[in-house]
Structures are given as structure tokens and as C-alpha cells.
Write a structure and sequence with these properties.
Order of helices and strands of chain A: HHHHHHHHHHHHHHHHH
Largest sheet of chain B: none
Helix content of chain A: over 70%
Largest interface: A-B, 45 and 39 residues
Number of helices of chain A: 17
Strand content of chain B: under 5%
Number of domains of chain A: 1
Order of helices and strands of chain B: HHHHHHHHHHHHHHHHH
Low-confidence stretches of chain B: 458-471
Strand content of chain A: under 5%
Radius of gyration of chain B: 24 Å
Oligomer: heterodimer
Helix content of chain B: 55-70%
Radius of gyration of chain A: 21 Å
Number of helices of chain B: 17
Chain lengths: 390, 471
């Protein structure tokens, strides 16, 4: 392997720190001005980071599980992004100070006067909620540590037994990922409206997670490749796979989103429709229709032709687009509970997203400085570099 | 892609160093020889079942669907169960031929043809049920939105009508896809056969195929386009079938996870049936090196994945039924699992969720006897899944005074048996008349057939030779 490690430009670190700094200041001011809103913003950012961090770990596991080789040269990118998981553990703590701001069900007096909330009390109570959140974080953290330990060790030894070990790890993780992501989304987002329920909700967030984590991986991989950070420049064959899967995952999201909306609209039961009606009020209506275009129709049409799937510049734009679309989607899921009178967006929302962007850049840079950008002795690497479409 | 123990070398898809000529001979053999005793026995059994089905069908049409066990409140029963069951079976073929094609999964070549044929036969079987369920099948033409003198129009808001469109589109596209894939193989048969009559038939069917470069490039373009068109169809058909239930307000039917859950279940049941039949077929026709254990193992992995998804959906439904705080919802699910039809629920749950989990173990995935038992259980479990969804949600509805149990009649059982008879009779006829593996596609995945990449220039020439011998 003739891999020569190149450090990422230090400018990137500066940008990361700058965004992080502005974000922290903004979040601080936001909490001082309106802590209620600040907690919702914070939750929005938190869910976005879960999508990227945990979703990236799932992509790593998926590569092992299905025996893919084309993505092996880029696997480190997802491993670096998965390093958000330890940070997420810390970022969870502030949310526990805001449970009363966020969750209606956390108020004992509200539960006392509401028979439906009483029925849900065995699940929706602060104690059990805390236990569940700790379990999710523990699972994500343990698997993150195991996967990165194996991958790092293999850089030194090149032992195929480590690949086998990771394949074995990815099997239970696949199931645990599905369960933890589904229940984390129910806990953090669906229970914001504690009366509302949809069996699809967990799958909906799961679909969004995959799109956004994959978009992040696509963006970073194409950037690194175009700037010569890999051993050899990889081209159309790999780009085509990125483009196709980004396109495919996004269609999956649209399919889930459409099914959920259509079935609730058609059955027209008031205990379900109110959730969409909230998103059709004052200004939110435009936002909801916008979601269809931003998340599905526009990227669908742009990514459909084969020529755009192999165009690196377009792939960079579209992967950033999909990240924005995922944030847009999460905002749609979370914020109508706060902005009940109509749509709202302001500097405090921009602030949390600057924090999120800064954090992702910083974590990525931190990991990239300390590890090889390519899994240099992974036995599948050569097949991945030689990958060609047939 | 399967890699060897060092994760550096791809395992061959076709074993025993089969040459291209061997492939021609082995795959074409069943179409060139007289049927064996075993085949006659098999088709006697299946056509007897078909005959029983035909008699039941006659009773149904002559006396009306009062011959069935359907009652108030169980207005939908075997008719719809069988419809959904067979449509589900028909999902493996197109998944293999379209989606796996787009994903460039080369192992699909060994099983695609057979699975596509099964898809077509399963959709044909499924199509019978809604038509006879209308009670007056001779008026079936009104299912299509055609202008008529009576001014009678279909209800465009009804998912039952969407089913008509979805299923007929699915059948048409699958049939075309299958037919186009057959052309090069029919040309091989045409060139091989010595019988004049056969030659003429194959001549017509192979549309003047000459293996020219232009033939192939048109063929591949058509194949790719059809794969692209078929891909959304794999999802849409069972999604719309799930809408039949999910758009209603019946507890246990109206749940938003239904579309992906039904699609996963359909793929699950389709692969279950493909595996069941292939395990026998590969043995009988000596194709164990073309349809290898590796193929069966990969199908078992798909069964594991989709079975787990289905299990996730069962559990999520159960949880949300409780979480909703809606007494009707939670009643329905508790009634499913612990009510009078609990036996059906637990058959479904164990066959679809518990037993396929055994496929986590490589030994079990690669053991043919155990796989065979497990895939039979998958078939049973998926039939019971539709039974559970349809019957248990209806038999205890909102009005306790109208609660009733459902008992199938002899006619119901006869039609169920007959549907298997119809399906298998068509399948056995297919096995003797058309190549059950795509000859031209398998030739393309034989070792040495692909353009080779040479990672180490100094072993350049040698690498090609080694590839040719097939390690």
C-alpha cells in the first residue's frame, strides 16, 4: 500500500472552531433570552447530530454486514463522523434540564387531568425515559468503541480476523440500531405531542437518518478524493454508487413519508390528523409543502439522470442539499409544538445549526488528524479501489 | 458479493469449472428429454389439486360465494387471504430480476429466471380470487374504468381499484421482462434442437435473434429500462394491497407502518417459496453447481433480513396499540395474541420471526435440510399472517353483539388447495418447456468471462489463466 498520509488543511480546523464558538455564544444568549425556545432549538440540533453520528456508525456496520467492497476506501469517513457519538453523550445532559419545557407529559398535573396520558404513564414518565435514553447512548457508545478499535488495530496488523469480528458485531448492531433509532425518535420527537401516535414514526426517522448520514459520507468522500487525500483518485464507478444510493435512500424516505401522510389523511381520524393539522396552520402550510419539494421532488429530478450521479461537483452540492433537507425535516417534526401559532425561524435556530456544523467539522478534523484517512490494511481495500461497474 | 476467508478474493458463482458448453447442455437438458416418472407423479398431484380447485370454483360461481365461510362480521376471509398470499409470493421474482440487477448483484443470474416465472404464475393465481370474490365474475369488465352505456364508473378513491391497476401493471411488466430475458435463451434452444416442430416454435419465439452486437446492445438497453420500471412496481403492488386494509378505520388494519411492513413480508414470502421449490429443482435437474449453496445462503440472508423487519413491524404495532391509549386498538392486538385465534397468531409469529432467526448461524444457512424446513415454515407463517390480519381484526368488531367466529367451508379449502394446484401445474409445465436458468446470463458470470483487473502487473498473464481454470 503506497498510502502517504496527508493532513487536512489547518484552515478547516479554524473554520470549525469559529462556527463552534459562534454557536456556543448564540446558544448561551438564546437560553438567557428565551429558554423555552432554546430547548426546542437544542433538541432539533441534538436529533440532527444523532442522525449523522449514529447513522454513520450504521453505515459502517452495513458495509461489513452486506460484504460491500466499493465503499471500503471511504469507510473511515463514516467512522470519523461516528465519533460524534461520545460527544452526544455529553450533549444529552442539558436536555434533562429542559424536560418540563419540552414534554407536556413530564408535568404531573397535566397527567392527572388527562386520561390518555394516564394510560401512557408507565412508558412516558421521567424515570423510565431517563433509563431508556441511557440505554440508547450506552449501546451506541459501546458499538462505536468496538468498531473503531477493530478498524484501528487492522491498520497495524491487517488481520482478516478483525474483519470477521466486525462482521459479527454488525449483526447485533443492525437490530439494535433499528430499535434504538425507532424508540429514540418516539421518545424525543413523537412524544412531544403525547396524544399522537403513528407506527411508522420510527421508520420515518430511520429513513431520514440513512439519507443524512449517507449524504455526509458522500460529501466528505468526494471532497477528500477530489483534493487527493486518498491513495489514488477514484472516479465514476465509485461516484455512481454514491449518487445511486443517495437517490435510492431519498426515495425510501419519500415512500415512508407519503405512506404515513396518505394513510392518516385517508382514514381521517381526529386523534391522528391533528398532528398534520398543526403543520398546516399559519405559515406552517407553506413550510410543509416546501418539505415535499426540498426533500423529495427537487433532489429526485436532479439526481435521476446518470450523468448527475457521476458528476462530483453536483454530488457535493446535492449531499449538502440533503443535509439541509434533513434539518428541514427535523424542524418540521419538532418545532410546530413550540411555534403553535404559526411558523417561526430566527437567529437562535441559525445559531444551533452553526454549532452543529462546527462540531461536525471539529470532530472530523480531530479524528482525521489522528488516524489514517483510508483503512490501509483492510483486506477488502484493494477490491474497493479496483471496483468497477459491469 | 461473497468473499473468501481472507476477504480479498471473490468466490466463483458457478462451481465445478463448468464450461460454456456444459452450461448449454445442462440447462437445456430438461427441455430436450422426455419427462421422467417423477415429473409425471408431480404433475399428477398438482393437477389433481387443480381439479379440486376447479370443482370448488364451479360451486362458488354456480351457487355464489355463500358457499364460503364468510359471514357477518367476517366479510373478508379466505378469498382475500389467498389473494394477498399469492401476490406476496410473486414479489421475489421482480425483486431478484429488477432490484438486484440495479444493485449489480451477479448472484441473481442463477435464480432470476425461475423466480420470475414463479412471479408470473403467482400473480395469475392471485388474480383469480378478487374476481371470484366479486360474486359475479362475468361482470369483471366493470373493474376497468371504461365508458359504458349504463354510465357506471369505478370509484377512483378506492384502493381496491388501485389494486386492479397495480396488479395488472405488475403482471404486464413482469411478463415482458421475463419474455425479453428469454429471447437469447430461446435462440440457443432453437440452434440446439433437432426436432423440426420445436425449431419452428423457438424460431418464432426468439424473434429472429442472431447474437449480433446490435441484438445484444438493444437487448441490454431494453432490459435496463424494464428493470428501472419494475423497481417501483416491486414496492407499489404490495403497498397498494396494504392500503386495502390501512385506509380503513378498523383497529388492526389502520396502522401507518403497513406499507413497508407488507412489502417486507411479500419479499419474505416470495423468497420462502423460491427457496422451497429451488431446493428440490436443483437436485432433480443436477444443477447444484449452478444454483449453489452460496445462492441458497444469500436467499437465507434475505429471509433473515425481511423476517426481522416483519418482526419489528409486529412488535411496533403491538407497542403502539398500547401506547395509543385507544382501548379499541389495544383490545384488537390483545385479542390477536390471546383471544380465540391465538393459535394462528403464534403460528405466524414463530414461523416468521422466531425460526428465521436461526439463519444468523452460518451452519444453518448452509444446511439444506434445515433450510428446507425453515422455508416451508415461512410459507405457512406468511399464509397465517394474512389470516391473522384479516380475520382477527374483523371477527370481534366494535359491536360485541355481532361478534362471531370464522370457520372455513369445504369450498374454501378446495379453492386454497386448487390455488396451489394451479400454481404448481404451471410451474411444472415451465420446467419442461423453457430453460429454468438464464443460460446467457449465467455464462456472463462464469469465472474468466468478465474483464479482469490486474492489481499486480508482474502476474498479469498468469492471473487470467488462473481465472480461466476457476480456483
Amino acid at each position: 500500500m503506497d498510502y502517504q498520509k496527508k493532513l487536512l488543511p489547518s484552515k478547516l480546523g479554524t473554520i470549525g472552531y469559529a462556527l463552534l464558538g459562534i454557536g456556543i455564544v448564540s446558544i448561551g444568549v438564546s437560553f438567557a433570552v428565551n429558554s423555552h425556545r432554546a430547548f426546542f432549538d437544542y433538541l432539533w440540533m441534538y436529533m440532527f447530530l444523532i442522525s449523522i453520528g449514529v447513522g454513520s456508525l450504521a453505515l459502517v456496520a452495513m458495509e461489513y454486514l452486506v460484504g460491500a467492497t466499493w465503499s471500503t476506501p471511504f469507510r473511515r469517513v463514516s467512522e470519523f463522523l461516528a465519533a460524534l457519538i461520545p460527544v452526544l453523550v455529553v450533549l444529552t445532559i442539558p436536555l434533562f434540564f429542559g424536560l418540563h419545557d419540552l414534554f407536556h407529559w413530564s408535568h404531573p398535573e397535566a397527567v392527572a387531568s388527562d386520561p390518555i396520558l394516564q394510560a401512557k404513564e408507565p412508558y412516558l414518565n421521567v424515570q423510565f425515559f431517563t433509563i431508556r435514553v441511557v440505554i440508547y447512548l450506552a449501546i451506541w457508545l459501546i458499538f462505536f468503541l468496538l468498531f473503531s478499535r477493530n478498524s484501528e488495530k487492522q491498520d497495524l496488523t491487517g488481520d482478516p480476523a478483525l474483519t470477521k469480528q466486525s462482521i459479527k458485531l454488525s449483526a447485533p448492531f443492525a437490530i439494535l440500531f433499528l430499535l434504538t433509532i425507532a424508540f429514540a425518535s418516539i421518545d424525543w420527537m413523537m412524544s412531544l405531542e403525547p396524544h399522537w401516535y403513528s407506527t411508522m414514526f420510527g421508520v420515518y426517522y430511520f429513513a431520514g437518518t440513512l439519507v443524512s448520514a449517507f449524504a455526509a459520507a458522500t460529501f466528505c468522500s468526494v471532497m477528500l478524493n477530489e483534493n487527493g487525500y486518498f491513495t489514488k483518485k477514484l472516479s465514476n464507478n465509485h461516484y455512481y454508487s454514491f449518487g445511486t444510493l443517495l437517490f435510492g435512500f431519498n426515495i425510501f424516505w419519500a415512500y415512508i413519508a407519503f405512506s404515513q401522510y396518505m394513510l392518516i389523511w385517508y382514514a381521517d381520524l381526529p386523534e391522528e390528523t391533528f398532528w398534520f393539522i398543526m403543520r398546516m396552520k399559519e405559515g406552517w402550510a407553506y413550510y410543509s409543502i416546501g418539505l415535499v419539494f426540498v426533500h423529495f421532488i427537487i433532489p429526485f429530478l436532479i439526481l435521476l439522470p446518470r450523468s448527475s450521479k457521476v458528476n462530483p461537483n453536483l454530488l457535493k452540492v446535492m449531499s449538502i442539499w440533503m443535509l439541509v433537507a434533513h434539518a428541514y425535516d427535523l424542524y418540521w417534526l419538532i418545532m410546530p409544538t413550540y411555534f403553535t401559532d404559526g411558523f417561526g425561524f430566527g437567529w437562535s435556530e441559525i445559531g444551533v445549526m452553526m454549532f452543529a456544523a462546527g462540531l461536525m467539522i471539529t470532530v472530523f478534523k480531530y479524528r482525521a488528524d489522528r488516524k489514517n484517512l483510508v483503512p490501509v490494511k483492510d483486506p477488502k481495500l484493494q477490491a474497493g479501489l479496483d471496483y468497477h461497474l459491469t | 458479493m461473497s468473499l473468501d476467508a481472507t476477504y480479498t478474493r471473490e468466490l466463483p458463482l458457478v462451481e465445478n469449472n463448468a464450461t460454456l458448453k456444459d452450461l448449454d447442455n445442462i440447462i437445456a437438458l430438461p427441455t430436450e428429454t422426455k419427462p421422467t416418472k417423477g415429473w409425471w407423479i408431480a404433475i399428477s398431484i398438482s393437477s389433481t389439486a387443480l381439479l379440486i380447485g376447479a370443482i370448488s370454483l364451479f360451486y362458488t360461481i354456480y351457487y355464489g360465494i355463500g358457499m364460503w365461510g364468510n359471514n357477518q362480521p367476517v366479510g373478508w376471509a379466505f378469498g382475500i387471504i389467498n389473494f394477498v398470499f399469492w401476490i406476496g409470493i410473486g414479489h421475489a421474482g421482480t425483486l431478484i430480476s429488477a432490484i438486484l440487477f440495479l444493485f449489480r448483484q451477479k448472484w441473481r443470474t442463477g435464480i432470476a429466471r425461475f423466480a420470475e416465472a414463479m412471479t408470473i404464475f403467482a400473480v395469475m393465481t392471485a388474480g383469480i380470487f378478487p374476481i371470484i370474490h366479486t360474486g359475479r365474475p362475468w361482470l369483471g369488465g366493470y373493474l376497468l374504468p371504461l365508458p359504458n352505456q349504463n354510465g357506471v364508473w369505478v370509484n377512483f378513491m378506492s384502493p381496491l381499484l388501485w389494486d386492479v391497476f397495480a396488479v395488472s401493471t405488475y403482471f404486464t411488466i413482469s411478463f415482458l421482462f421475463w419474455g425479453i430475458g428469454l429471447i437469447p435463451d430461446l435462440a440457443i434452444l432453437r440452434d440446439k434442437t433437432t426436432s423440426k416442430i420445436k425449431k419452428n416454435i423457438y424460431k418464432v419465439l426468439s424473434l429472429g435473434w442472431t447474437n449480433s452486437n446490435r441484438n445484444w446492445s438493444n437487448y441490454e438497453r431494453a432490459y435496463l429500462i424494464l428493470a428501472g420500471i419494475s423497481t417501483p412496481l416491486v414496492l407499489s403492488v404490495h403497498t397498494i394491497v396494504s392500503f386495502d386494509f390501512a385506509v380503513s378505520v378498523i383497529p388492526g388494519w389502520h396502522t401507518t407502518i403497513f406499507p413497508p411492513y407488507f412489502v417486507a413480508g411479500a419479499i419474505f414470502s416470495g423468497f420462502g417459496m423460491v427457496s422451497t421449490v429451488l431446493i428440490i429443482v436443483r437436485k432433480v435437474f443436477n444443477m447444484e453447481h449452478i444454483i449453489t449453496i452460496g445462492h441458497l445462503e444469500k436467499m437465507n440472508k434475505i429471509l433473515l433480513a425481511t423476517g426481522t423487519m416483519v418482526g419489528f413491524a409486529y412488535s411496533m404495532e403491538f407497542f403502539v396499540a398500547w401506547y395509543s391509549g385507544n382501548t379499541f386498538e389495544s383490545f384488537t392486538f390483545v385479542n390477536r395474541a390471546f383471544g380465540p385465534y391465538a393459535w394462528a397468531y403464534w403460528i405466524m409469529f414463530s414461523c416468521n420471526v422466531f425460526f428465521p432467526q436461526l439463519f444468523w448461524f452460518r451452519k444453518i444457512r448452509r444446511s439444506i435440510p434445515i433450510t428446507f424446513i425453515l422455508v416451508i415454515l415461512v410459507n405457512v407463517g406468511m399464509w397465517f399472517e394474512r389470516f391473522v390480519i384479516i380475520v382477527t381484526s374483523l371477527h370481534r368488531d366494535f359491536l360485541p353483539s355481532s361478534w362471531a367466529m370464522f370457520t372455513p367451508t369445504l369450498t374454501d379449502m378446495g379453492l386454497l388447495l386448487g390455488s396451489f394446484g394451479f400454481f404448481f401445474t404451471l410451474l411444472f409445465l415451465f420446467l419442461k418447456t423453457l430453460p429454468l436458468v438464464s443460460i446467457s446470463e449465467v455464462k456472463a458470470v462464469v469465472e474468466g468471462a468478465q474483464p479482469t483487473v490486474h492489481p499486480h502487473p508482474h502476474t498479469n498473464g498468469k492471473a487470467i489463466q488462473e481465472g480461466g481454470d476457476g480456483h
